[in-house]
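Objective 1b: paired records.
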Amino acid sequence: MLERNWDKKLLLIAAVWQFIDGALTIGLGMFDASTTTTETLLPVSSLSGLVGTLFILAGLVNLLFAKYFLKEKEINKWVLPILIIEVIIAYFCMDVVTVALLVPTTIIISLKRKKQKLVNS
């Protein structure tokens, strides 16, 4: 039997991974040996910097979900669609670890939400 807070644990692990992945993406995006101008050292000035920033923002969203929204008795209706959008974006960015962490989390949260609907009706 699954523990009650597996979704929270998986979201926290996904958030930590997205912070690490975003920092690595920004760091490696800033490192360009061919140019040494200060314009290339801005993190959001390149595509990899923008993707890294989006990974960090997704990690913040997952941290927010894990710490606040999943503690309530009733799961907010916006949690599930946002997680599905994150899975799709991570899939197209080829972030396999995030997809592997968020797909089971999405399934667990959808099952909890379905159980809540059955109990309420």
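Objective 1b, second protein:
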Amino acid sequence: MRRLFLGLALFPLTCRKPAQVAADVAGTVAVAWAGSAKGRFAAPAAALWCRTDSLLEVLATRHDTGVGFTVIAQDSVRVAQYPVVSAAVQANWRPLGYAALRVATDSALRGYEATSGLINVTGLADGTVTGTLDLRLKRADGPDTVRIGGKFTRLRIVSAQGPCGRVVRPAPAPPPRPAVK
């Protein structure tokens, strides 16, 4: 009987959520999403700068959940708003961004790709980047959609080593042809 009471007394302690990383801790990305799925996530993040393609890649993962986004700058990351487009769009303009979310459910891993939104870089100081996210994503293999809001806080920017950037870069636009009369 004592074991039963002890087990019942300890049961709530075993059901607590694991501690999450605080959203305002330097070097973290914290997001919440709602729509066909709902959740929140915070984790340490890596911010890699690819000089050859002028892009910043941010990736935050914890266990089977992750969020990543890319800011494609004109020449360097600046305090600015970066419109997010679908990866299916062959965009050859700058600045712009891409984003994705991977979520573990009870039965599967679900991948979401950004369809639109905004990455807002609000601060650059001492080799770090800070900003906010407002993204709309669609499930990669279905009709489900989610909207993400969140922020990234003082992520240390590190130069990428070795080959980096987009594997298939959009070809530059050809120069305009003069009109023939």
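The chain has one helix and nine strands. The chain has one domain: 18-154.
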